[in-house]
Amino acid sequence: MANLLVTGGAGFIGANFVRLRRETRPDEAITVLDALTYAGRRDNLEGVADIRFVHGDIADTALVTRLLDAGIDTIVHFAAESHVDRSISDPDAFVRTNVLGTQALLRAAKTAWLDSGDGRPHRFHHVSTDEVFGSLAPHDPPFTETTPYAPNSPYAASKAASDHLVRAFHRTYGLQVTTSNCSNNFGPFQNPEKLIPLFLANALTGRALPIYGDGMNVRDWLYVADHCEGIARILDAGEVGETYNIGGGMEVPNLTVIDAICSFVDRIFAEQPELARRFPDAPAAGGRPTADLKRFVADRPGHDRRYAIDASRIADRLGFRPRHDFAEGLDRTCRWYLDHPDWWARSPAPQSLSRVA
């Protein structure tokens, strides 16, 4: 039975992982370490029983060492700055958290698990992204675990650096690590600066739906519950030192995602007339198409054209495949945001309406 430290466990993917882990492993000890920046919220863990929450920074090596000395044997490292647009305007924050923070966490893990000499089994699982591989042309094969790194944004570069540090601590010191590179996540608790919750919130409040460029940038979409199950499978059966891609197998252009959100809003307002009273500023409240809110805006600098994940390694070696297709995952996601308007209304506003992930 593992004794887990989940960094960034009050953020989007981290909170979903903690919820899954508590549900599937009720007797496991879980400590959540989160700095509670704009993307981390304590109420994301509301209702999750028997977890220890520590408000702190992964770069605080003394704090992390104290936590590890209390018996923790597994780190699941989600904590990261992750929004590309924010990395363009403030790359320093991404280096501090994603590079120096990961280095501090690795150093604390080495001190507690290796330098002490007790030889206890341990695992450091590092959660990364497909963005480290760069951009694909329309007919290029998907990213594999051996695709050369070619990051194009400060965010992607900072995650690539952290990936290399994790690998180096395994190769140099023998730290027992695994890494996963995931595709675009979506689902409950995602900060409204990201594409799906931003566009849904804007549709419900009558604000513009700003579309970068021609809207044909393609992403491989992964429902967050599937991602968390993939990480759990790696923790249980993954080979130390290995990297596993976790993808949804759902390549969809941004414009198609946006059109699907518009269609969902139009349909749900027709099915549930009471929504017009709850969201009177939505075009759908007056019987107008949500798509009227679409606006094309200038593309962002260095915008990668296409991501695609080859997830055959985790499927073949660990037997993991995602359970949700895009349509089902989007429906679940949109219904969750409709049911939790107070949650996204309390979230910090995105840097601008045109800033989408």
UniProtKB/TrEMBL annotation:
<dbReference type="InterPro" id="IPR036291">
    <property type="entry name" value="NAD(P)-bd_dom_sf"/>
</dbReference>
<feature type="domain" description="NAD(P)-binding">
    <location>
        <begin position="5"/>
        <end position="332"/>
    </location>
</feature>
<protein>
    <recommendedName>
        <fullName>dTDP-glucose 4,6-dehydratase</fullName>
        <ecNumber>4.2.1.46</ecNumber>
    </recommendedName>
</protein>
<dbReference type="InterPro" id="IPR005888">
    <property type="entry name" value="dTDP_Gluc_deHydtase"/>
</dbReference>
<keyword id="KW-0456">Lyase</keyword>
<dbReference type="InterPro" id="IPR016040">
    <property type="entry name" value="NAD(P)-bd_dom"/>
</dbReference>
<keyword id="KW-0520">NAD</keyword>
<dbReference type="GO" id="GO:0008460">
    <property type="term" value="F:dTDP-glucose 4,6-dehydratase activity"/>
</dbReference>
<comment type="similarity">
    <text>Belongs to the NAD(P)-dependent epimerase/dehydratase family. dTDP-glucose dehydratase subfamily.</text>
</comment>
<dbReference type="Pfam" id="PF16363">
    <property type="entry name" value="GDP_Man_Dehyd"/>
</dbReference>
